[in-house]
Amino acid sequence: MTENANPAKPPAEPERGYSLREWLIDALALGMGGLAVYHYKPEGFLAGLIVFIGAYTLAHSLQGLNWQSLRAISEFLLVLLTPMIHLGTLVMAPAANVTGMVATFLLPGIAQAYWLWELWPATGVPSHPLAVMCAAWLAVLGIWIAAKTILAGARAPKPN
Question: What is the pTM (predicted TM-score) of this model?
Answer without folding.
Answer: 0.53
